[in-house]
Amino acid sequence: MNFISWNIDSLNAAIQHKSPRGELTYKTLEKIAAAKPDFFSIQETKLPENGLNKKQDEVLEELFPNYLRFVKNSTPPAKKGYAGVMTLAKEAPISYDKPVIDAPGTMDQEGRIVTLEYPDFYLLNVYTPNSGDGLRRLPARGKWDDQFRHYISDLSERKIVIFSGDLNVAHEEIDLKNSSSNHNSAGFTDQEREKFSRLLSAGFIDTWRLQHPKEIAYSWWSQRNRLAKTNNAGWRIDYYIVSNSAKEKIVKTGMIDTGTRADHAPIYLQMKL
User: Domain spans of the chain?
Assistant: First the structure.
């Protein structure tokens, strides 16, 4: 079974592809479509509350014909066109949920989690809140991490859990190029790293690190720094995480090359399910 996950940084920008960056994004989307994954999890769709417009719907149907779509968009009082997740699936789930995890502020309304239930596993698409400039959202982010850990721990008592997404944390120093200068940057604070350690200790596996214990590879490069991608000054903040009980079912993990396009690269997971 094949899974792909990607923070697309605006689904509309990819579909319209009117800029050079948009063209690169669309080409990556075409590459994913050609791979025909069983599941494609998208983060940061940035769609309005009422969802896809006609053109967006038509292009997605052309690229991913007959896939089912499961969507959580940002809704009031959260900001319009903010965050958002969408999961495309070849097969219908037993159930579909847009869970409220009692996160602080507007985080539950920002379009951050979609959960699909299948006979043998739960599949979650997750976009973890960023701690923000000046770490203004770090305390709330910590509460999110706790609530999300409790949520997936409850699910894992019933069956295998598989979740992916932009989790906005580089867990260890090996997971980013400049660890010393970024020690207190959003995504690499002691709090965020400790919360991620607690998540794994609750019974979950970082699939890529399991298969690549000492390999250096990144899934995100800053758009603000034009040389970040060229110099491979990146971070690994996108993950496929699975329950410990599914360890032997993991076949292959990796990143999908996006060429010169900065920001996030798609990640993939193959499992025997």
Answer: 2-271
Asked whether residue 264 is marked as a ligand-binding residue, the answer is yes
Active site residue 102: no
Burial of 138 (0-12, 13-18, 19+ CB in 10 A): middle
Instruction: Pick the catalytic residue from 26, 127, 240, 268.
Output: 127
Domain 2-271 has CATH 3.30.1330.10: no
Among 108, 166, 175, 206, the active-site one is 166
- Is 263 annotated as belonging to a binding site? yes
233-263 pLDDT per residue, tens: 999 999 999 999 999 999 999 999 999 999 9
- The total number of residues shown for the chain amounts to 273
* Active-site residue, 127 included: yes
User: How far is residue 78 CA from its own chain's centroid?
Assistant: 20
168 among annotated binding-site residues:
yes
Q: 120 among the known binding-site residues?
A: no
Q: Name the one residue in this structure whose structure tokens are 């580089």.
A: 170
Least confident residue range of 16-30, 156-170, 241-255: 16-30
Cα–Cα distance list, 259 to 15, 25, 232, 240 (Å): 18, 10, 12, 22
Q: Cβ contacts of residue 168 below 8 Å, gap of 6+?
A: 128, 129, 130, 131, 141, 186, 187, 192, 237
